[in-house]
Amino acid sequence: MDTVPNFQQFFGPVLETMSKATTTLTRQQIGDSTANLLKLSPKARTESIRSGLPRYVSNAGWACTYLKQAGCLETPKKSEWQITTRGRNLFKKYGYKINTVTLSQFSEFNEFINRKGTRSSNEKAGIENLKARYTPDELLENIVEENIVAIKSDLLERLRHVDPYEFERICIDVLLAMGYGGSRSEFAGVTKKSGDKGIDGIIKQDELGLKKVYIQAKRWSNRVTEKIIRDFLGALVAENVTDGVIITTDEFDTGAIELASKRNIILIDGKRFVELMAKYKVGVETKRTVILLKVDEDYFDLG
């Protein structure tokens, strides 16, 4: 299996692992065992969540949490788990078919899912449905991903309507934020509005300006063609420069991509450019920082 299943699909493997265990197990041990039972490939085992934790370990850990809330697992020792009689019986009856609907037969689990709040009944129903389908880590990842997609779309739309010379400045700002030119503004800038010979900006890679990267910015709504690349290469030759970057708000055609690949020319299309803007925080700002807490299991000694 090349992809990590959702956390509900770990319920059965977790209970099977715990039913065979002769001693308590840690989350990592449970995660490794369930990965073997699910026959996760090496590729799947390298998949991680935003915190860096392997996704299969995270999903197995959340499966443990949900099963504990249903009274199927318990933690008699710090950071260690064991199965209960209810958990054994549940696995014998349902095997790998256990999900949150199965667990809803237990009142403790329903109390865990249906935490009371101040939201409307419809909002609660929607939230409860999401909580039953995703772990908190997955919910947060989905929210972050949706936000990034929306921001990138908004950025691209705005870039397509800015003044062309403003777009050149933005391109310089992004490259500086990435560390080119040592992030020092005096080492970079846009060229004059006329007579630039197809060169829109220059970044000096060293203090003496011996190593330069030339930039062409195309705030276009159509594809950049091979001819544009050839003209840009001619401008580089005239300036005795070998390195160049072409940035566009649209895309590059096949000929342009093939020609650039044979030279030291980097092509950045609109989608890639807004990804860089978001990553290096150019034209965007942090709206809110959310702190998620988890229990420090090492703090408690239950044994």
CATH level 1 class label of the largest domain: Mainly Alpha
Question: Termini separation (Å)?
Answer: 37 Å
Radius of gyration: 27 Å
| Residue-averaged pLDDT | 82
Beta percentage is 5-15%
User: What kind of sheet is the major sheet?
Assistant: 5 strands, mixed
How many DSSP helices? 13
- By DSSP, the count of extended strands is 7
CATH architecture of the largest domain: Orthogonal Bundle
**Structural class of the secondary elements?**
alpha/beta
For the biggest β-sheet, the strand order reads 3-4-5-6-7
Any low-confidence stretches, pLDDT <50, length ≥5?
A: 116-127
CATH topological fold name of the largest domain: Arc Repressor Mutant, subunit A
Helix content: 40-55%
Count of distinct structural domains? 2
Please trace the helix and strand order, writing H or E for each element.
Answer: HHHHEEHHHHHHEEEHEHEH
Q: In one word, what is the shape? A: elongated
